[in-house]
């Protein structure tokens, strides 16, 4: 059987196809069986999976009905059409929802998995206001944050380790009330039994190994996925030889960052600052 290997990082269209294939194979369906459920020919399914044919809105909605995935494929189609997600991110989100361990590092803003809806909305509305994205994409970004967070609420939730650069808690977003609620969310996150929250303080200086956001996932089979992004590009990797150095650097980051207790104390101090402000 000829099977074309997919490179979800090559384009948003390829990421859609890779997500379609992984969802189908998780259920052990053939392309023909999925095509029957979606009312498409198997050759059409193959063409979308391998990136030879772009998905349509109707196709995406049919996929969501077949998989019972809410509006995930429709959302990926909208992002593909409008290009508001960086390459590699749609495929990463699919893995994130199934990960058993999640390691995050973020600079500047609180990562999406830890954002309050109000904080997420301010970021999206600001992007709309400066003309970076149209209003409908702002709504989709907020909805995607909620969708990612909901995927983590399951009977056996993943272990989530987050290291936030101090800039994440010092940078005001949305005014005192929204920032106060966001910082409180971080304190509550740190108290969960399946989480570790640390702050990388400014005085770490050159000891901080990352300058850009990094996400590392461990899947149930102990394989790993890495996702990192710059201002205009995102990149996802599953190659062990590329991920191991990132994991080593992440361990070094955790060793030099504040302990969780000290991190929570710093966050509470920042909360007092927002009240006084």
From TrEMBL:
Name the CDD domains on file. HTH_XRE (cd00093)
Instruction: Read off the Pfam families from this record.
Output: DUF5753, HTH_31
Q: Where is the DUF5753 domain?
A: 90-269
InterPro entries named in the record? Cro/C1-type_HTH, DUF5753, Lambda_DNA-bd_dom_sf
Q: Residues annotated as region Disordered?
A: 1-28
Quote the protein name from its UniProt record. Answer: Scr1 family TA system antitoxin-like transcriptional regulator
Native source species = Streptantibioticus parmotrematis
